[in-house]
Amino acid sequence: MRTSYREALRQALHEALSDDPRVFLMGEDVGRYGGAYAVSKGFYDEFGPERIRDTPLSELGFVGAGIGAALGGMRPIVEVMTVNFSLLALDQIVNAAAVLRHMSGGQFSVPLVIRMATGAGRQLAAQHSHSLENWYAHIPGIRVLAPATVGDARGMLAPALADPDPVVIFEHAQLYNLEGELPADWRCGIRRAAVRRPGSQVTVVTYGGCLPKAMAAAERLAAEGIEAEVIDLRVLRPLDMETVMDSVRKTHRVLVVDEGWKSGSLAGEILARIAEDGFYDLDAPPRRLCSVEVPTPYARHLEEAALPQAEQIAAAVREMLNA
Amino acid sequence: MARSADAKSLPRRLLADMLRIRRLEEKCAELYGAGKIRGFLHLYIGEEACAVGVLHALTMDDNIAATYREHGHALVRGVPMEAIMAEMFGKATGCCGGRGGSMHLFDAAARFYGGNAIVGGSLPLAAGLALADKMQGRKRITACFFGDGAVAEGVFHETMNLAALWRLPVLFCCENNFYGMGTALHRAHAQTDLCAKAAAYPMATARVDGMDVLAVHTAAVQAAARVREDSRPFFLEMQTYRFRAHSMFDPDLYRDKAEIAAWKQRDPLDTFPARLKAEGKLTDEELLVLERAAEAEVAAAVEAAEAAPLAPVADLLKDVYTPEAGP
After folding, report:
1. Contact by Cβ (8 Å): A41, A30
2. Residue A56, strand partner residues
3. CATH 3.40.50.920 region(s) of chain A?
4. Which residues between 87 and 106 in chain B have a beta carbon less than 8 angstroms from any beta carbon of chain A?
């Protein structure tokens, strides 16, 4: 069945709210307004203001309250409007949610799900567009997910809610309108990366909003006779390096595409692990394609120039194969 | 620990718990000097009447969230002294297996949600615990302890608003010891009337002498009853004073010796037994029995902590994530 990423997220939330009375959705404008990205439109009327809970503009307060409610036996889903706003809540996520289990010697788990929009591409400039997934992926104690397909948008929420530990889900803002085929069995785990397109000559590792770009690049390359394998990380912490290494051992070439900035990026972490564990499997220097190190500009042509694009991915692969 | 129908024995139980905290912490300071306890150690000495008065006003079904100066709260709440001492020794038998230390005591059985070393960090957690209780139809309340320093944090104001807006059953227990680490209240707050800040959200407030354990207890009983009945937050300010420095690293250069001496005149460990004796409710012999019991409990806790094993390094990664269910 064809559906949109937004609709898939919506179905997943609807199912969670319908199936488990402990689940509630909380965040800025999730209720009456219907969600900043219209994911929860209509839920307020259906589930009521207690379970579709509009919050004041208090990211630190309501994320902290979500942690407390999780400790108290609920299964909160806290929506933060964008990753940039989540920085206001970073203290509670890093200093409480991620560490309470460990600090308490395993006595208290925090079964909390935090959803937030991330990424650029909508001309929202430098306070609404950044990709800071790597900040969260740095932190032991939380799981970090990046659904990039309608299947994952539909399937990842249930296992995230079932997980006894805090899970942060990044929804790339450019994906909400993405249309795709929802598999008949969309159920999925949140432990493994996925091979989205098999190929033999080069591995392209990516996640989130860059996945459609990598797939488009692979399509173009295929027309030229180049078979790229595209890996969607799906889970940014803990990383599934087994799937990545299996591919690298087959193709012997790897390009990582990451909308984050190169310095201190997830792309850097992945290449470091490949270098540590698979250096002698490589036939060419590994490469990265990341965002240009500039705060995301407003003007469309500048924003496009700042982000990894499909043509750049294809060009990087060609260079690697011709080298 | 829980409120008892036996009002007659209450003063003696309050005194006994204050003594237990005082003797425990005096020993902690000594053990810190001896290198047995490391990290940060923040002593509650002088402020005991606050934790004791409030916690005796609650039921064991209520939730507690506290600060990094929480040895007393944990102890009065029922965390065994041995488990507290072993935690400070970093031993496997500590209440958190040596992962938390002095600033992070937790106990699920006591509904004791920490030990939080981010100033103000426990405030939204308490609001969330109360939200969970309210949504699940429980009558439980959550008591959240924090200091005057936390009142300057943004999260204090966010939490006050959420608690008042959503009518959350939280008893906010502000231990105002007039210093945020080394900075005096009047040097950090334009409005030094802390109740006025809470009242703005709005919520009911009360200010009580935090050196008078009976006054604290009475105020806390009334406040807790209101929170429970109305399902609304309450802000209880207890004015108190820490007799020791902020932490073991603090040379305490920012307070007048005369100010410290004046507050020490009001030491609840002196004034309360004196009052009970004057009222004929306590004899010297009875006080001695309480003193000896506290000392014996401390000695046993130290002995057990000394003898306890360290957690194996092989378990280093334990409790970062919950183990996967199933085979």
Report:
1. no
2. none
3. 194-322
4. 94-100, 104, 106
| Contact (CB<8Å) B95/A105 | yes
Asked whether A202 and A253 are in contact (CB, 8 A), the reply is: yes
Which CATH topology does A2-181 take? Rossmann fold (3.40.50)
Q: Where are the domains of chain B?
A: 7-315
CA distance B153 to chain A (A): 11
Which of A68, A102, A165 shows the shortest C-beta gap to B125?
A68
- The conformational region for residue B109 under phi > 0 = left, psi -120 to 50 = alpha, else beta, is alpha
Work out the burial of residue A161: count CB atoms within 10 Å of its CB; fewer than 13 is exposed, 13-18 middle, 19 or more buried.
Answer: buried
Omega within 30 of 0 (cis) for the link into A76: no
Contacts of A59 (CB under 8 A, 6+ apart): A28, A80, A85, A86, A88, A89
Question: What is the location of CATH 3.40.50.970 in chain A?
Answer: 2-181
CATH of domain A194-322: 3.40.50.920
Is A181 assigned a catalytic role? no
Is residue B50 within 8 A of residue B210, CB to CB? The reply is: yes
Gap from B86 CA to chain A (nearest CA, Å): 13
Span B70-112, pLDDT tens digits: 999 999 999 999 999 999 999 999 999 999 999 999 999 999 9
Task: For residues A194 and A204, give the distance between their C-alpha atoms in angstroms, rounded to a whole number.
Answer: 12
pLDDT tens profile A60-85: 999 999 999 999 999 999 999 999 99
User: Who wins on pLDDT, A129 or B7?
Assistant: A129
Q: Work out whether strand A113-118 and strand A167-172 pair parallel, antiparallel, or are unpaired.
A: parallel
**Which residue of A104, A112, A190, A239 to mutate against B (max B Cβ within 10 Å)?**
A104
Question: Domain B7-315's class?
Answer: alpha beta
Name which of A54, A102, A167 to mutate to probe chain B: the one with the most chain B Cβ atoms within 10 A of its Cβ.
A102
